[in-house]
């Protein structure tokens, strides 16, 4: 869960007037009485506002604020999410926030004003609940995902047209290979940084081949990439395609009026359903055990139409663990970069926390490989993860010195 502490919480000071917000909602409201930041996993800023009127009426709403400094593709993601929410409000009624209005100022910001679904995040409810409540919430969340995928499958053409109107967030073989390269470069840069061989954030590893020899391994980048493409990527790309949420995290699920509802569709895309399942069932704060993960997978699988089950549950579960490997690599690299960034800005405790979480995702990757057939145990990416875990271990405490 992320918050953007460097952004002023007063919208008016940042060029968003009360009149702009009120004009999108109407209904006789004439002032914004209160506003507060919302902690979320979204890359963009969220605020909860309370609207008032001279007649004594009041209402809460949520503002999503898209900014170029947070996302250089903010205009595309604003337009895409606004259109997707309109479709979902029509065909997935009362399971997503209703949109009251939106506005975009080219090169400056986009603003979406939405229904407030409250503060009961599934992530918090799950941690606070007993075993029976946890099981009920888990079952509801899996059913909600099944229903979402069923709706997007039924109206596939309409959703696909919006999603593919711009080349963003696509899950192709090339994208997965690029994610692997970036993640490895970011972790290698962290390794160099912690050993005093680098003193900069780096360029994110978008283009250069990872220099794996720096870890003392007899591995070449092309062999690592080819192995990953032949196993993990192929499994993901050859699976049945769905319109997926692409960020189905517990922090994006809210219990509202007795129903779970889902938020944040700015990265919705086409891909294997297991991508959404891995994001949810292996989300760290839920801490699901093996039996709970298996139960969630089985429940989703049993909800599938027959045309999606011809490969059998074993293959379905196999692709799930491949999705989790790719996801774990991506997060490990993101957190490695964040660790360097925090250390450079003089925030050692935050740097240590990012490093600890990055290593946790490498451990998650190794756990995923253990669920796959024996042939996967010799995968070069698995060897790289083990080596990085070993080399980064001494740095956890060192960062605070």
Structure, described:
The protein is α+β, with helices and mostly antiparallel strands. It has two domains: 12-115, Phosphorylase Kinase, domain 1; 117-401, Aminoglycoside 3'-phosphotransferase, Chain: A, domain 2 (Alpha-Beta Complex), CATH 3.90.1200. It has helices at residues 18-25, 74-91, 122-128, 131-154, 156-163, 173-194, 221-237, 273-281, 290-303, 313-344, 348-370, 380-392, 395-398; strands at residues 31-37, 45-52, 58-66, 99-105, 109-115, 242-244, 253-256, 259-262, 269-271. A five-stranded antiparallel beta sheet has the order 1-2-3-5-4. It has a two-stranded antiparallel ribbon with strand order 6-9. Strand 7 and strand 8 form a beta hairpin. The protein starts with 17 loop residues before the first helix and ends with a helix. Residues 1-8 have low confidence and may be disordered.
What is the level-2 CATH architecture name of the largest domain?
Answer: Alpha-Beta Complex
Q: pLDDT below 50 for ≥5 consecutive residues: which ranges?
A: 1-8
> How widely separated are the two ends?
26 Å
**What is the total domain count?**
2
**Which CATH class of the largest domain applies here?**
Alpha Beta
The CATH superfamily of the largest domain bears the name Aminoglycoside phosphotransferase (APH), C-terminal lobe
Main pleated sheet: 5 strands, antiparallel
Number of strands: 9
């Amino acid at each position: 869960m992320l918050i953007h502490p460097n952004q002023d919480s007063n919208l008016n000071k940042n060029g968003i007037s009360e009149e702009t917000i009120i004009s999108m909602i109407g209904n006789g409201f004439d002032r914004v009485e209160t506003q507060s930041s919302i902690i979320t996993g979204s890359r963009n800023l969220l605020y909860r506002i309370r609207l008032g009127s001279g007649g004594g009426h009041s209402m809460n709403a949520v503002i999503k604020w898209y900014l170029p400094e947070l996302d250089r593709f903010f205009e595309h993601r604003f337009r895409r999410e606004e259109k997707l929410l309109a479709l979902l409000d029509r065909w997935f009624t009362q399971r997503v926030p209703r949109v009251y209005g939106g506005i975009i100022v080219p090169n400056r910001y986009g603003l979406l004003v939405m229904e407030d679904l409250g503060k009961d995040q599934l992530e918090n409810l799950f941690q606070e609940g007993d075993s029976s409540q946890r099981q009920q919430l888990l079952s509801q969340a899996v059913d909600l995902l099944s229903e979402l995928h069923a709706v997007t499958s039924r109206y596939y053409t309409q959703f696909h047209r919006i999603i593919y109107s711009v080349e963003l967030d696509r899950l192709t073989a090339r994208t997965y290979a690029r994610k692997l390269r970036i993640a490895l470069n970011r972790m290698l840069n962290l390794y160099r940084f912690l050993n005093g061989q680098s003193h900069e954030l780096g360029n994110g590893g978008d283009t250069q081949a990872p220099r794996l020899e720096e870890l003392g391994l007899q591995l070449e980048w092309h062999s690592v990439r080819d192995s990953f493409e032949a196993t993990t990527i192929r499994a993901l790309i050859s699976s049945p395609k769905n319109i997926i949420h692409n960020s189905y995290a517990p922090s994006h699920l809210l219990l509202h009026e007795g129903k779970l509802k889902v938020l944040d569709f700015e990265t919705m895309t086409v891909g294997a359903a297991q991508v959404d399942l891995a994001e949810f069932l292996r989300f760290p704060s839920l801490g699901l055990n093996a039996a709970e993960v298996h139960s969630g997978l089985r429940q989703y699988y049993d909800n599938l139409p027959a045309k999606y089950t011809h490969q059998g549950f074993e293959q379905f579960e196999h692709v799930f663990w491949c999705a989790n490997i790719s996801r774990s690599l991506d997060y490990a690299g993101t957190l490695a970069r964040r660790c360097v960034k925090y250390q450079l800005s003089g925030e050692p405790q935050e740097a240590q926390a990012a490093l600890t979480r990055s290593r946790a995702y490498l451990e998650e990757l190794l756990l995923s490989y253990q669920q796959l057939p024996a042939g996967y145990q010799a995968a070069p990416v698995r060897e790289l993860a083990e080596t990085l875990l070993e080399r980064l271990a001494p740095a956890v405490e060192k960062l605070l010195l």
